[in-house]
Design a protein that fits this description.
Length: about 425
């Protein structure tokens, strides 16, 4: 890996160039497996035929007709967060990222496993969640120290041993869940009617029992991949959205007005599919936040044969890295790029913009499989909170910089002040 050529691209033409390269740029760099060791050969890190098979297998779980059945569940998790935030309304400030992390964890666990983890209702962080956070923190530090890149070195130092310990914890819990699901399947406890809501794990188990080359370890790897990647990115995105809304009260006021127009004074009414379509300005706010703070700050591709990208000759085996947070600041595409301006994403302002100039969920065949679920979750959670509360951010943007690791999180915890909007608390 140390001898591999690496090309960094910041041009907004890059995603379109990668698209035009077709199958030459589908594979992830081998470094993904090294630094994202927790995922094994799951969908995020696999390549070639294995990736195509896994993607085809899991795609049906993310169709809109499947996702819409989770709208009631998303509402329930959002309401739990509303109640949890009541305890914060008399405090000088709240570090909201942990609360949003627990909410996103509850959401993704129900979607992936059909299990109610109730992380929001506990004062103790779930062991699974704590372990994955430590794995990614230590793995991120490893990427910045080239001497720790070789596995035989990393696995012998203190941080490497801690990573291995946490990986064992996560895999043990995932294995227990998979084996319990298999037991239910064999004993006839899992019976589904046509069109009934099912978890991703249900579908993975069925595939495992029907296909010889998809073993129990494969199920475990996919389970971990979807829980971790589906939780971390969405919670980070919501954290940044609340931060930006708290910095710009005029924009927050517009969102409040839109929500009041849709829901009136009924702050307890669950959001519906129609409501999601009506929250046009809130969606613009979320998209603009994702432009400035895309959850994945970069994505890489390993070139399978000689090609040309952005007029640069790229040899076979080289790695191309797209810096998403830089692409989204191209002045030719987004004038005054540092300005927080949700109007950029109004339909009339997006007509002539290439869909490959804005890629918070990556682009092409290897785009984020869960992006629709993530957007639904963000809209429902953010709208539910804003129907009940006003948000004020206490740290200016120049003092709160993003930490560019595997997921863009703030370099220091975000502090916001939460106050009730109305006496009619949910």
């Amino acid at each position: 890996m140390l001898n591999t050529q690496c090309f960094r691209f910041e041009s907004s033409k890059l995603p379109e160039n990668l698209k035009n390269c077709g199958n030459k740029t589908i594979d992830r760099p081998l470094s993904y497996k090294k630094f994202l060791i927790l995922f094994g050969t799951g969908l995020l890190t696999s390549n070639g035929t294995l990736w195509k098979t896994r993607r085809k297998m899991t795609n049906p779980c993310f169709r809109y007709d499947i996702l819409k059945d989770y709208v009631p569940s998303l509402n329930e998790h959002a309401q739990v967060l509303v109640k949890r935030l009541r305890e914060e309304t008399d405090k000088d400030f709240t570090r909201i990222s942990r609360l949003l992390s627990h909410c996103a964890f509850d959401v993704i666990c129900e979607f992936v496993m059909g299990v109610h983890m109730r992380a929001q209702e506990s004062s103790i962080e779930p062991e699974f969640l704590y372990a994955t956070k430590r794995i990614f923190l230590l793995s991120s530090r490893r990427t910045s120290n080239v001497f720790l890149w070789p596995d035989f070195v990393f696995n012998r130092v203190k941080s490497g041993k801690e990573v291995q310990k946490h990986i064992a914890t996560v895999k043990a819990q995932a294995r227990s869940l998979v084996q319990e699901e298999k037991r239910k399947y064999f004993e006839g406890e899992l019976k589904f009617k046509e069109g009934e809501k099912r978890s991703l794990l249900n579908m993975l188990i069925e595939h495992h029992l029907q296909v010889k080359d998809f073993g129990e370890e494969d199920v475990i790897e996919e389970l971990i991949t979807f829980i971790v990647s589906g939780h971390d990115t969405t919670s980070a995105a919501m954290t940044w959205t609340f931060y930006m809304l708290g910095l710009y009260p005029d924009i927050q006021k517009k969102v409040h007005e839109e929500l009041d127009w849709i829901f009136g004074e009924d702050i307890k009414r669950p959001a519906t599919e129609d409501d999601l379509r009506d929250m046009k300005y809130l969606e613009c706010v979320i998209k603009e936040t994702l432009r400035l703070y895309p959850p994945g700050p970069f994505f890489g591709r390993q070139i399978s044969e000689d090609t040309t990208i952005c007029d640069t000759k790229i040899p076979k085996g080289a790695i191309c890295v797209a810096l998403t947070h830089v692409l989204h600041r191209d002045e030719d595409v987004f004038p005054n790029p540092e300005k927080f301006n949700p109007d950029r994403f109004l339909p009339e302002n997006s007509l002539n913009r290439s869909p490959y100039a804005y890629i918070p969920f990556s682009a092409g065949p290897r785009n984020c499989i869960g992006q629709k679920l993530s957007m639904m979750e963000q809209i429902i959670v953010v709208s539910t909170i804003l129907r009940n509360y006003t948000i004020e951010s206490l740290d200016e943007r120049d003092r709160l910089l993003p930490a560019l690791t595997f997921v863009i999180n703030p370099s220091t915890p975000i502090r916001i002040r939460i106050r009730p909007r109305s006496s009619k608390m949910a």
